[in-house]
Specification:
Layout (H helix, E strand, L loop, with lengths): L4 E5 L11 H10 L4 E7 L9 H5 L7 E2 L2 E10 L11 H4 L4 E5 L11 H12 L6 E2 L12 H11 L2 E5 L13 H14 L3 E4 L12 H9 L12 H11 L15
Parallel strand pairs: 1-2, 2-4, 4-5, 5-6, 6-7, 7-8
Antiparallel strand pairs: 3-4
Helix pairs in contact: 4-5, 5-6
């Protein structure tokens, strides 16, 4: 399985990542990727980006170094009106919206029932496209069956996160739960994305460990959304209009 798109990358705006959008795109181009999304952390993560940052992502070119660049976020599940730490007015300006749980954002109590209800609420928001690293069970337990059913109901992609299978990762102890989510998604007909979760540009497109898991469980390649730029854009547009997404190879370039 070869993947030509990476829907989970971070820039310096996340507060604990170390590269720019331009560096990410050039690294992706060097590896033959067709598309990336930069998905910086929402404001409730310590050091995360301010809502104005996401509002102004419109200034970033749609194509850099020949790579299609989607303007996105990795927002946080939150106890807010829309269940997310960014308002819908901002989310609607982005090309791709991912949500997930992170430390110090209000969900550190290991309360599976509360976490499950909050994540389902966020997933029900029609602007949400992806749930990141859903198998992070040690820090943020959720009911797997309920989340997979919600992904099917609300047409939300579940991520298979490469970093979860890195033995040096803080999430490595939840690797089996991340795998279990992929198996359940396979059986339920849910789409997945395989993301690098790169916090440094040289890690863009590095998802060999997650690919190995997807291949081992026989996940259907046609339901891996980030096969290439065309498959990403087709899947995103199937959910709702994306007027700001340029066609691959079109749009303002740099």
């Amino acid at each position: 399985m070869r993947l030509l798109a990476d829907l989970h990358t971070h820039t310096v705006a996340s507060g604990h990542a170390f590269s720019t959008v331009t560096e990410l795109a050039h690294a992706a181009a060097g590896k033959g990727l067709e598309l990336i999304a930069f998905t910086d952390h929402g404001p409730s993560v310590p050091g995360g980006a301010h809502p104005w940052y996401f509002w102004n992502t419109k200034v970033v070119p749609s194509v850099i170094a020949g790579v299609t660049v989607l303007r996105g976020c990795e927002a946080n599940v939150a106890d807010t009106e829309n269940g997310i730490d960014l308002p819908d007015e901002v989310l609607g300006l982005l090309d791709v919206v991912a949500v997930g749980f992170h430390p110090l954002t209000g969900f550190d109590e290991l309360d599976a029932a509360r976490n499950t209800a909050a994540l389902v609420r966020a997933m029900s928001n029609p602007l949400v496209d992806i749930v990141t690293h859903p198998g992070n069970f040690d820090e943020f337990p959720v009911d797997l069956a309920t989340i997979v059913a919600a992904a099917l109901r609300y047409d939300v992609i579940l991520e298979l996160n490469d970093h979860s299978f890195d033995p040096h990762s803080a999430r490595s102890t939840s690797a089996e739960t991340e795998r279990a989510f992929a198996v359940a998604a396979r059986d339920a007909g849910v789409f997945i994305s395989i993301g690098s979760d790169a916090h440094y540009h040289e890690l863009v497109g590095e998802f060999g460990r997650a690919i190995a898991v997807a291949e081992a469980i026989g996940f259907p390649i046609e339901r891996v959304v980030n096969r290439d730029a065309a498959s990403v854009l087709a899947r995103l547009r199937a959910k709702r209009p994306r007027p700001r997404i340029a066609e691959a190879g079109e749009g303002v370039s740099a």
